Amino acid sequence: MTETPTITVYGVMSPNVLKVVILLEELALPYRLRYVDLFKGEQYSPEFLRLNPLGKVPVLLDARLKQPLAESGAILIWLSEQAGRFLPRSGESRYDVLQWLMVQMSAVGPMLGQFTHFSLLPAGNEPYARARYEAMAKRLYGQINDRVANTGWLAGDDYSIADIATFPWGEYIDRHGFDQSNYPALMHWRELINNRPAVQRAKAAFVANFGAPSVQSLGSATSDDLDRFFGRSKDMPQQDFSAATRLK
Question: The sheet that has 69-70: what strands, in order across it?
């Protein structure tokens, strides 16, 4: 992109960050990416907390908006409304998109994220938690599969921010160990999105800016770093994440 970026996205290797980058590429907006070292606690620095008091990524800085904007769903709505794309302005179709965006925000992201978390533990640790989130993941993958089998896209006939938000989580079906053949419609939907040039550009930019720093930070994280990142107190049972090679 040759234009001077007026948009900055603070983030890491995370589905919730990737969805924002995908939309920026779909809208052909110039942007820059800023890495936040979560394992070293940069999200709790005074500078970052001024951007988002909750200490979470992504955060969007957009010259058109007079304040930082956090929460990936809110960011997608803002960008789509400014551009008039991927979110209908009114009518039933608008609320169909928002409904499925909220499904991703309230269920797909949290449940699949928790399953990923417990999947990082050695076998035999936290069996109830892992089984619970595995069952939830299986159910959600099935619901997405059934939905796109009937509608093509999550919110009906048109590709929207509901698809953009859910797609990065849909790619977790492989690392979660589910049989792809049980979700043919989901896999077709995922392939359609993956083949979009904007999505390919977004993935390349995402990995180039966040890939190596995220892996290096995780590899050098101390026990205290991991306690802070996972929100563990010293009196909680400690688990060994040293073999983890993937991020939530």
Answer: 32-35, 7-11, 59-62, 69-70
